[in-house]
Amino acid sequence: MPKLRLDKFLRDQGITSRSEIRELVRKGMVQINDNVVRDPATHVITGSDIVKVNGEEICYKEYVYYMLNKPKGIITATEDRDAKTVLDLFPDSIRRRGAFPVGRLDKDTEGLLIVTDNGAFAHDLLSPKKHVKKLYEALLDIYPGEWSIKAFEEGVDIGGYIALPARLNFISRSCPVIAQVEIYEGKFHQVKRMFKAVGATVIELKRLRMGEVWLDKSLRPGEYREMTDEEIAMLAR
Ligand code: URA
Predict the structure, then answer these.
(1) What's the CATH architecture for 133-210?
(2) What pTM, to 2 d.p., does this model score?
């Protein structure tokens, strides 16, 4: 089983900042297997040693994976001087782990956004070679016509670039006009530009699914939950 220095173990779990760890250890507030530890360099065997801070057990997680229902009005970034970011919706312990959003949704887009600290997982999910499918639901200003389904299937020109074939389906053709589109890439403003190419404007946009993982309907905008092992495995495939 992997061994880690106690200070690294605590930092990796986002428990506290580097300077505070020394202080906690110095004050005798950290225990390994019920023994008070005085040296931050003490080794912890992850998965077998029980580490407690202030009497509370710290469950070791190599990585964290969250499903966020991104609300409108918040930018997809880890930090920003002026604007509120999706990471501001998470507690310090998650931010300290170095968690970040996988890919990006526009400020006015809502829906499924994955937040993790597993760089390799995120890299794979975003890799253009993987063509991970993404399902969006769009509220449109007009019904562009049945021909747009074929146009999306063949690949529309989004301004000097022909989008990969996408699956378009209309949930409602009259007011409110609602469409669902499944795309296999993630260019800047991709869905909005695709609808523009067939003469419609996206008024609202929501991501419903990535790969086979659906946005949990019980999450209201701004809420998040840990992903299940099954969901993580579905995206890691
Ligand atoms: N396509 C867009 O136009 N915007 C998003 O936020 C995501 C996909």
Answers:
(1) 2-Layer Sandwich (3.30)
(2) 0.91
